[in-house]
Amino acid sequence: MDTNGMTTWAGNHTYTGTVARPTTLDEAADVVARARKVRAVGSRHSFNDIVDSEGLLVSLDALAYRHPALHLHDSDAPDPGEPASGARRGPEPELDDATGRVRVSAATRYADLVLFLQERGRALPNLASLPHIGIAGALATATHGSGVRNPVLASAATGLELLTADGATHRLDRDADGEALDGATVSLGALGLVTAVTLQTVPAFDVAQTVYGPVPVGDALDGFDEASDLAYSVSLFTTLREDVFDTVWLKQAVEPGREPAAPAQVLGAPPLGAKAHPIPGVDPENCTDQLGVPGPAGDRLPHFHAEHLPSAGAEIQCEYLVPRENARAALTALAGLREPLAGLVQVCEVRSVAADTAWLSPMHRQDCVGVHFTLVRDVARVTAVLPVIDAAFAPLGGRPHWGKVFRTDPARLRSLYPRRSDALELARSYDPAEKFINDFLRRWVV
Question: Exposed e or buried b for every residue in 326-335, given b needs 16+ CB within 10 A?
Fold first, then answer.
C-alpha cells in the first residue's frame, strides 16, 4: 500500500485514501473485508472526487487484460513504478460464440477489449470518445458515446461480478436479475468492487468517418435533429469563439461489400479535405482516421487513437445531459455562454444519447443531448464558472455527467432520478455498513 498522491488522469484532482493494488481476487477480497472504508480506483478518467475514500483506494489494474499488441499512451499508464500498460497481466476475455457475450476483467481498458473482439469478428455496439478508459468506471458513471439510437455503454452489460464489503463475491445476470442489474450497472461505486463484466457484442462492422464544417449556429439550430440522424454517430464541435460550429463529425456504419456514401454536405457545409482535430489548430495525428476511409468500428467510433495522447491532455471536463425535447434551447443556452467562458473553453462537443434503463443514468428513460466542455486546466477559474454553466442547463432539466466537474443544487439533482430510492435500497442491501459510501455520494445521491 502507498499514499503517493494519485491524481486524476488530467491532474486536476488528487485523490484521498491509501492505495492498495492486489494481484489476485483472493487478495482483493481480503483487502476489502479488512478495510473500514473502500472505493475503487480505475483508469482515473474522472475529473472530480467520485473516487475519493476516507480509508482505502483499491486498484484492480493488476487483474486487467492487456492486449499484447497494444501500448496505451504513457499518460494513461498507472502511477510511476507500475508495469507498462502494454504488459499482459489479467486473464484473457471469455467470448461465448453462441450468445456473442464476452466476460472480461472489469479493470480492462476498452482499447484492449476492442482488439481482442476485432480479432474474433466481434465488436461492441458503441464506444466513448476515448478508448483509454476502464470498463468498470465507464459503466459506473454512465459514460456514453454518440448516436440517436445508441444508449450509454452500460446498456451493453448483461452481467456483473462484485466484491462486497465482507469480501464475498456476488453475481448479477441480465436474464435472472434484470431489475437489479439496472441498479448495479450505473452504481457510482456504491455496491462494491466490480471485478468482472459480461458485455453483449455484435458482429464486427466498419465505420467511415467524415468531418464537415464550419456550420453557423443558426443552421445548426434549425437542422440539429436531421443532422443528428445522418449517421451512426454524430458530433458537433465549437470553440465558442465565433457564432459557428467549427466541425461536424459523421461516423457512418458501412454495410459489408458496399462503399461508404457520405453526404455531399451537412447543414450546408462541405466535407473537409484534410484530417481535423476537435480543437482547431491542434495536430490531428492522435485522432482516428477520417476522410471517409472505412475501417473497423473500434478504430473509428472513438475520436482518438489508444496509443496516442487523447483529447488535449491538460484539461478539465464538464458535461450536462439535457432532455432531447430541449435540444434547441440547449444550443441557444450554449451560445449564450460565449462571454462568461471566454478564455476557458478549448472545445465544446454536442451529441445525442439514446434513453436507457439504468436507475442512476442521466438518460434514464429519456433521449438526451449531451453538451460537453473541454476546459483549460485552471482549477480555480473553472470552479468559478461552474455555477454559470449550471444556470444555463439546469432550467432545461440538464443533469451533470457523474464523472465530470459540476456545481448544482443537490436537491434538484436528486429529484431528477425517479429510481434513486431504489438505487439506495439496492446499495444498502449489498453494503449495509456503507463501507463504499463517500462524500461524493453523500453530497449528490444519498
Answer: bbebbbebbb
Domain membership of residue 88 (yes or no) is yes
Among residues 368, 301, 352, 362, which one has the least CA distance to residue 147? Answer: 352
The 10 Å CB-count burial string (b at 16+, else e) for 408-444 is: beeeebeebbebbebbbebbeebbeeebbbbebbeeb
Domain count, the chain: 1
> Tell me, what CATH number does 134's domain have?
3.30.465.10
Q: Where are the beta strands (DSSP E) in 180-328?
A: 193-200, 202-203, 206-212, 215-216, 233-238, 244-245, 247-254, 294-296, 316-323
Cα–chain center distance at 299: 17
Half-sphere exposure in the Cβ direction for 407 (13 Å, CA): 9
Cα within 13 Å of Cα(89), Cβ side: 18
Going from the C-alpha of 407 to that of each of 53, 309, 383, 384, 389, the distances in angstroms are 20, 28, 8, 10, 9
68 sits in which H/E element = none
Examine residue 368 and state whether it is found in any structural domain, yes or no.
no
The answer as to whether 240 is a domain residue is no
**Calpha distance 132→138 (Å, rounded):** 10
260-284 burial code (b ≥16 CB/10 A, e <16)? bebbeebbebebbeeebbbbbeeeb
Q: What is the pLDDT along the chain (446 residues), one digit of tens a residue?
A: 665 678 998 899 999 999 999 999 999 999 999 999 999 999 999 999 999 999 999 999 999 999 999 877 544 444 433 444 445 578 999 999 999 999 999 999 999 999 999 999 999 999 999 999 999 999 999 999 999 999 999 999 999 999 999 999 999 999 998 899 999 999 999 999 999 999 999 999 999 999 999 999 999 999 999 999 999 999 999 999 999 999 999 999 998 777 778 999 999 999 999 999 999 999 999 999 999 999 999 999 999 998 876 766 689 999 999 999 999 999 999 999 999 999 999 999 999 999 999 999 999 999 999 999 999 999 999 999 999 999 999 999 999 999 999 999 999 999 999 999 999 999 999 999 999 999 999 999 99
Q: Is residue 247 part of a domain?
A: no
Is the full-model pTM beyond 0.85? yes
